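The freezer alarm interrupted the setup, so I double-checked each line after restarting. Inputs confirmed:
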Amino acid sequence: MNDTLIVEKEKPKKLRNGILLTGLPGIGLIGQVVGRYLVEELKAKKIALLLSPHFPHQVFMTKKGGMRLIKNSFYLCHGKTHDILILLGDIQAMSSVGQYEVAGAVLDYCQKLGVKEIMTVGGYSTGKISEDRRIFGVTTSDPLRERLKKQGVIFGEARGSIVGAAGLLPALGKLRGLEGACLMGETHGSYVDTVSAKQIVLLLSKYLSLKVDLKRLDAKAQESQKVLKKVQEEVQKSMEAQFEATSRNVSYIR
Amino acid sequence: MNDTLIVEKEKPKKLRNGILLTGLPGIGLIGQVVGRYLVEELKAKKIALLLSPHFPHQVFMTKKGGMRLIKNSFYLCHGKTHDILILLGDIQAMSSVGQYEVAGAVLDYCQKLGVKEIMTVGGYSTGKISEDRRIFGVTTSDPLRERLKKQGVIFGEARGSIVGAAGLLPALGKLRGLEGACLMGETHGSYVDTVSAKQIVLLLSKYLSLKVDLKRLDAKAQESQKVLKKVQEEVQKSMEAQFEATSRNVSYIR
Amino acid sequence: MNDTLIVEKEKPKKLRNGILLTGLPGIGLIGQVVGRYLVEELKAKKIALLLSPHFPHQVFMTKKGGMRLIKNSFYLCHGKTHDILILLGDIQAMSSVGQYEVAGAVLDYCQKLGVKEIMTVGGYSTGKISEDRRIFGVTTSDPLRERLKKQGVIFGEARGSIVGAAGLLPALGKLRGLEGACLMGETHGSYVDTVSAKQIVLLLSKYLSLKVDLKRLDAKAQESQKVLKKVQEEVQKSMEAQFEATSRNVSYIR
Amino acid sequence: MNDTLIVEKEKPKKLRNGILLTGLPGIGLIGQVVGRYLVEELKAKKIALLLSPHFPHQVFMTKKGGMRLIKNSFYLCHGKTHDILILLGDIQAMSSVGQYEVAGAVLDYCQKLGVKEIMTVGGYSTGKISEDRRIFGVTTSDPLRERLKKQGVIFGEARGSIVGAAGLLPALGKLRGLEGACLMGETHGSYVDTVSAKQIVLLLSKYLSLKVDLKRLDAKAQESQKVLKKVQEEVQKSMEAQFEATSRNVSYIR
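Predicted 3D structure, all chains:
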């Protein structure tokens, strides 16, 4: 396996007003909590996997004695106004080369399904706790900016850079004619922020005319955090082993 | 040589109930000891080499003044019920990208020969010495789980992740329609565990209806350990030289 | 996106006496200041972008709530005697493999447009402040050396090596039959040297029969420095985060 | 430029008893001194260059104001009994992936020219100064071993591994049906050993029926050492700059 690979479990029809939402690990875990919650509440269906040689070369053992690859997954659900593709995953690629390769594969798949709009979700770390939990946005499209402004998204205040898929997907998508934006929930940055995640779920449900009940979000967020922590610990363990091995001792052959 | 390469010395007929067993370096050296022992006891024949640019760029000098590449090798033997392909090697690829590439090449070759089942062998490190040396399993296939349970393999108790080929081969194999499992011998983790290796040889000989005499296993394990130690020392030497060179001094050009 | 990519916004006609000038980050920021200044003064038009998986996987947020990829850009202007292609960018590829790949893509594009001459611009660090700010040159072509000598460029005094695009582009260009040189402004090396940059702008305007007013150069240089500093800080932040993560803690998944 | 590239300056006819000799940097600088000396004494002609994205992304400035890429070069001369291809270079690829890629490109080129035998030259470091300066060999071919034994090469005494091209070229060449050996001059290891280099030149001139005058070898060796030292210093400087940049400060953009 030399390249990032998308394994389709189902081949859906061309999407109607197709939009991609991302729920990947990042600041305040906001993207991931939002993505997982929407998948569950909207009963979205898993339709494809994304595997990559730029993910760690590890598999996780499950409680039932199964094994699962480190992967990202695509889920699909049909809203009143939009067909919504949601990308979930416990990990992002570990190098620039890997990040660009995975982003390219995601966009290829989106275009194949007829997605027109790329909406990534992340956190915007301020180092303090804000009451409002505003939602900041950046976008590659003026019409999309107007649509999002109507929902209360604040443009032109966030500063700095966005690392990883949350930035690459809309920015590279633009080169393919896709509208794109990144929504960032205001957050402290050093803990999981379900308040901010809720704000984004609310905003997205209005923007996409969805009915989403928020009351299970806190419980779901805790679960997400637990899963991610385990993934991180396992990946970290093997990375430390490799790091030590590369620089020093004999035990690197596992 | 830009890609992992399989050099076939012989082209066997399609395998009958083909199964891949792996004997690669890992925890407690269990996989490697089991694999090497089976190759010897079953008089398996070397039919192919696997070379990779993700292995160290070194060759070993032999006692007779020859040289051998760092490689993995495939051996084939014909049991009563199964044709058994065994993958041996002193090394695994040194990066995620390399691990996925090598796993893909192994699976391509397995499919070409008609292998239906991927059985990797490793150790499960507990940090203590258990009397029983239980055998834990994870699998991608319910029927295979049932077959292995009958042999006493314990499912659902091992926790965490499996790093490298022992996990990637069955997990990626599943995407190609191959049944797969990883057998892990319970072991302390910081020394070569021939007791645990013996348990797995026993289990495999029952599972595959083989006649295997266990009495030479201890001697064979010592030999494996010696070989691997040498390989590790040599690879380590050159890695340290490179590491120093990259970070500091002038001597990196060798 | 697996390879360096050139996105053409316009397809110009074959260039007349086509020459490539580079304005990339480097010693004393001379190349970048010269390049940006020429683009502005000559009202050169952006005709293509260069994206690469060897650039950082980040996007920058703009003041207006937009986002921009880390990229290089090609600008075109038509002088009296030459059609001039200018390559600007805030970054160069981060590895040898990336540097060669990007250089190859730049040269492919130059050849497609009909560029005949590659002129890179950089600084030559002496560790002291010289009154004259001489301009040193190295070249792959005897006729070009003669032409540049007439403009006062000093050949045969600079020593050592040139790292990155400023060296690779003319040297690799030679293998494709393109004339090439690197112009290096004498400079201290540890601060932005607009005096040296002015000398090179003067020289290029004579060499290419251009009318360039120098009076806005200082202001422009300050702007360049500010932009680059921001880019560097953002890229640095994410690189440090990755570095820490690889060697130590759990927070690497962003 | 995404792959290792061979640039042919001439297309010679199929070689008669074609043999490749290598003169690359390594232990005691023996290979490089031998190679350079033979090229000069035999008036071998440069017929091709080898460039690689796995070499440093730097060019060297020459005394005359020219620039040269970091590269390897192929020289050809016609002996009484053999056509001899000599590979010279100041550098080897900097990673395993690069080493395998370059070795593959060298072997492709050798096969195209009709080379039948790969003879690499290196040093065997003993940490002490031996009077005899014996020559150790390892080989992939029994007939070649016999031919070399007749010349006094000692087989079966050298231990450990050979890092880089000196080992990879004959070992990978074997898979293509080429005979191969590595000759190693016994040497202390921490200084340039012209005595040992002389022994190998002598041996090769007998083995290949060449007339080689040895009296300029010492002077030539000093020159080689000077050239290599400069190359190493320059490459080292840029690697240190990158290393610091990656782990720490802001100045990595050059």
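Quick read of the result. The longest strand of chain A covers residues 115-125.
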